[in-house]
Design a protein that fits this description.
heterodimer, A: 219 residues, outer membrane lipoprotein receptor (LolB), chain A, 11-stranded antiparallel sheet, 42% strand, B: 221 residues, 12-stranded antiparallel sheet, 12 strands
């Protein structure tokens, strides 16, 4: 019985503590990560607004399919977003603080939402805001972060929340050479699927269209 | 309380009487496809594997859920699998179904708590893509602009409406227990098949409505 308890304890240590021990960063790595975070924060502090186009590449392993979409993205400090898919179906959402609207040009539907009342939209909006703001503190509160490369900065993020970890295995974020914005996000899902977002034609602190955070006129 | 009840009844009557967005074509048929052509022309009855990329709007008792997804339809094995994604491309749920039931392979934690949502999606997809099919001994009824194959069911009937060219326009089941309709619209030619680009499903009894737009169609070997 005692032997059984002992071996159970050993198994527990192996299963749960060994991975933690293995993933612990060395002081040198921690130092490098801190320096990178400081650099990213300093660069992000200069960003008032941002616009880009993006390509969304979805790999569905089960279907052996890659789905392509493209769109455009606007951000204005502190909490305004526009995420708009232009193909294959014009759709997207705008966010102004806590509230926003989604639209779809095929259904011609507009749905108002609040991110504190719509958890699904909350997840999407929080991710996009974190990437646009380069909100390292928010990211660190949600993910264990490893530094994959220093120049350009490439981070690997592992969800701390078990619910999210059951869905997303890890994210990889690649920054521009000057560390001012995100160039690519890779989301590796638990089922083996991947989503890659490539941000292109990025402009920082340039005037945004007057209607950047308003609904499109498709109705 | 009475005001609330009146409002609920009004809402219910909206669903019960909701017309289809677009009426069936009204041009009269100069000739009618044969019964054999009606039975053999339906793409859902041809053995094939389809990958259907779609944009969808699911409405459950007035709540709206916009979705993007890819549906794999195996019309020979009568199975379908839908992977639905959010705006970022992340999988929201992965649902497999056949005529008997469904299996949720994965779902965002927020959706796992909404069992009715998954059942609503599965029932809708089953009736759209794995529906009951017209049979050789169904009764044939000719109307000026359509033909209808139908058969009696316990407590009601099941009907299939075809347009002048033989495209399936509508499936309607009304019995003591079921009251639903699927409308197939905007047919286009694809790989020797006629595929509808828009599909509307209404379950009047449960207040569920699903509208699908097929944005990409691929036939797999």
């Amino acid at each position: 019985m005692v032997r059984c308890v002992k071996s159970g304890y050993l198994l527990f240590l192996l299963l749960f503590c060994l991975p933690l021990w293995c993933s612990a960063e060395s002081p040198q790595e921690e130092l490098a990560l801190s320096a990178v975070f400081a650099r990213l924060k300093a660069a992000a502090a200069q960003t008032q607004s941002l616009s880009s186009t993006f390509v969304q590449e979805k790999q569905l392993t089960m279907f052996a399919e890659t789905l392509l979409s493209d769109g455009r993205f606007y951000y204005r400090q502190p909490d305004h977003l526009r995420w708009e898919l232009l193909t294959p179906v014009a759709s997207g959402f705008v966010l102004r603080g806590q509230q926003g609207e989604r639209w779809n040009s095929l259904s011609r539907e507009v749905t108002a939402f609040r991110i504190d009342g719509d958890p699904m939209m909350g997840i999407v909006a929080q991710q996009l805001l974190a990437w646009a703001r380069v909100d390292i503190d928010w990211l660190r509160s949600r993910y264990r972060i490893e530094l994959l490369a220093e120049q350009p900065v490439r981070l690997q993020l592992f969800p701390l929340n078990s619910g999210e970890a059951g869905f997303i295995e890890q994210l990889q974020i690649l920054f521009s050479a000057d560390s001012r914005y995100v160039v690519r996000v890779e989301m590796h899902e638990a089922g083996g699927d991947q989503t890659r977002l490539h941000f292109e034609q990025v402009q920082i602190n340039q005037p945004l269209p007057a209607d950047a955070f308003l609904l499109p006129e498709f109705r | 309380m009475v005001r609330l009840l009146v409002f609920a009844l009004l809402l219910l009557s909206q669903f019960a009487c909701a017309p289809l967005e677009r009426p069936v074509k009204v041009a009269e048929c100069s000739s009618y496809p044969s019964r054999r052509q009606l039975l053999s022309g339906n793409w859902l009855q041809q053995p094939a594997i389809w990958h259907l990329r779609q944009s969808a709007l699911l409405e459950v008792r007035g709540r709206k859920f916009p979705l993007q997804g890819l549906l794999r339809l195996d019309s020979e094995r009568r199975e379908a699998r839908l992977v639905a994604m959010n705006e970022l491309g992340l999988v929201m749920f992965d649902l497999q179904l056949d005529e008997q039931g469904q299996q949720l392979h994965r779902a965002l934690p927020q959706l796992q708590q909404q069992a009715n949502f998954v059942v609503g999606v599965a029932d809708s997809l089953r009736r759209i893509f794995l529906p009951p099919v017209p049979l050789p001994d169904d009764r044939l009824q000719q109307r000026p602009a359509t033909q209808r194959l139908w058969r009696p069911l316990a407590g009601g009937e099941l009907g299939f409406i075809f347009d002048c060219s033989g495209d399936l326009q509508e499936i309607r089941q009304l019995t003591d227990t079921d009251d639903w309709r699927v409308a197939y619209r905007d047919y286009k030619n694809f790989a020797d098949q006629r595929i509808p680009q828009q599909i509307l499903y209404n379950d009047y009894r449960h207040g569920v409505r699903l509208t699908l737009w097929l944005t990409e169609v691929k036939q797999k070997k």
